[in-house]
Amino acid sequence: MPLFPGAFASAEESIGSIASIEDFPSLAQVEIRVGLTWVQQCAASVLTNRHVLTTASCYRGTEVPEYSSRIRAGTSDRGLGGIVASVQDTIVHPSYGLLGSEADLAVVRLDVYLTLGTLVQQVAILGQGIELPEGLIVKLAGWGTTVQGGESSNDNLYSLDLTVHNNENCMEQYIGNQIITENMVCVGLNYINGRDFDSKDLGAPLYYENTLIGMLAFGEQASDQLPLIVLATGTLSSVPVVVF
């Protein structure tokens, strides 16, 4: 069924803007250890005070062991401040990898409990079975590049308004390249077809009025013609993953 039938109003051209973690307190960073240095690898969302949600490809794509990964929450700065917690284990959706990026989900259990408050909060997730209408204006938050074709990510948290695109058109654009399923949503800038993809935004949350509606799964780097592909979290209610 359509989500909020009246939510088709047009918006001005979307541009990235510096944001505060207070505006997105459920947003977290996935960091991996490279030698003696920790670097931000992906984004995640706080599910509980001991679990975060991200994409399975954040871990499987780079074969990162748990002891070389940690979560940083409660900060607007990439790689600085906030609360840092080591990863105890990850639970990857059992269907991940069977059909492209379908079921690209992972629940990460931390070795300590996060202290919830103003800067660290649990995310609200869109209910199961709610479709996102074409033309809906949604918001992406993360530390990826804000420049089309940009090569470097941002040290500051940014947010960006994007528009939901027609899935059938999106399938045609990605044909022979990636598999687009009914559990995915295509989004892009308002004034061009697509949006440049930065791997640092893998797992980055897509919101509608502070409710998580999806996580960034894939896209094309240095491209403004192919939409970004978001895994719709409206399918999460049926995900057979045990959170404990």
UniProtKB/TrEMBL annotation:
Residues 14-244 form the Peptidase S1 domain. Keywords: Disulfide bond, Hydrolase, Protease, Serine protease. The keyword Hydrolase applies. Coiled coil: none annotated. One of its GO terms (biological process) is proteolysis. PROSITE patterns: TRYPSIN_DOM (PS50240). It comes from the Eukaryota. Signal peptide: none annotated. GO terms for molecular function: serine-type endopeptidase activity. InterPro entries: Peptidase_S1, Peptidase_S1_PA, Peptidase_S1_PA_chymotrypsin, Trypsin_dom. This is Serine protease 39. It comes from Operophtera brumata.
